[in-house]
Amino acid sequence: MRTIHRTVVSALIFSKDAKLLMGMKDPSAGGVYADCWHIPGGGVDEDETQEVALRRELLEEVGIDTNDCKVTLTDNQGTGETEKTLKDTGEQVLCKMQFNVYRVDIDKDAVDIETKTSDDLVKLEWVNLKRLNEYKLTPPSATLFKRLGYIQRRTPPQIIQEVGFDFSWDESKVWQLDLPTEDMPIEELTWHFDTPFLWSKPNGFYDINPRWILEQPNTYPEEYERTMQADTTYPIDIMFWRGKWLILDGLHRLMKQSLEDKRTVKVRKVPEAAIPKIKKSA
Fold first, then answer.
1. Using CA atoms, how far apart are residues 184 and 143, in angstroms rounded to an integer?
2. Nearest to 11 by CA among 164, 160, 115, 161
């Protein structure tokens, strides 16, 4: 597979009353992190400077003309990679991205700034930084905000520290691993149901046991719906960790197959040697 490189620009748009503009894609359209909030931005075309691309993207995505606004580079440490299909040729490529985050200050209070949703971002909201923890953020956004000091790192509960991974991983990198699929008795993985791997909304943090969702679907309607919509044609990615098979990706698929009374599930066993390949970029 051919590798291409893409420069991406995004904006921390602040109003005069210190609110940050966040957007969300259409969750029903699918895609990566479709139900999460993030800052607007996009790729830099070959004939563009980063600043020109940034102003174009902001006009297209949120309807704000920033030509009279000062923009300042705030962060360029973020990187990432994903597989994508090129629109013009249909070629499948590995896209390695370098993220450049700019701050844009608008001399108006948030209530006085006119914004417009788009096909890219169907929801827009001005957010007080003190409330960022209440929003479900894309992992790259959460990492950025922590690096900038906008949100504080939270310590997982003791049980998660004891059984969970001690590194952060990128699910898209896990998906890219070329690994065989095999059957595993579901009972080897159902211990996950009694451990709080899930988060409640709006600001929970490792506070829901999957079994509660399975047994009380009316109490957790969003998580139950997510479970029932899980695509079980995909295997569950697991790694042997601290004496147990621990899920990297596929907890909701496991939950759905448990509800379907499946005795075995399809899994891919990720070796510890693959950790450097799947760790999140800074």
1. 34
2. 115
**Is 212 exposed, middle or buried, given 0-12, 13-18 or 19+ CB atoms closer than 10 A?**
middle
CA-atom Rg of the chain in angstroms: 20
Which is nearest to 140 in space by CA: 261, 8, 235, 14? Answer: 8
Q: Which residues fall within 8 angstroms of residue 105, CB to CB, at 6 or more apart?
A: 14, 16, 69, 70
Helices (H), the chain: 50-62, 139-148, 158-163, 171-175, 210-215, 221-228, 251-259, 275-278
What whole-number distance in Å separates Cα of residue 190 and Cα of residue 182? Answer: 17
Using the 8-state DSSP alphabet, how is residue 89 labeled?
Answer: T
Helix 251-259 vs helix 221-228: crossing angle, to nearest 10? 80
Report how far residue 129's alpha carbon sits from residue 18's, in angstroms, rounded to the nearest whole number: 8
Backbone φ and ψ of 152, nearest 5°: -95, 145
Q: Please report how many Cα atoms fall inside a 13 Å half-sphere around the Cα of residue 227, on the Cβ side.
A: 24
pTM over 0.85: no
Name the phi and psi angles at 158, rounded to 5: -55, -40
* Whole-angstrom distance, CA of residue 58 vs CA of residue 70: 13
Residues 110-167 pLDDT 10s: 999 999 999 889 999 999 998 888 888 888 888 899 889 898 777 889 999 999 999 9
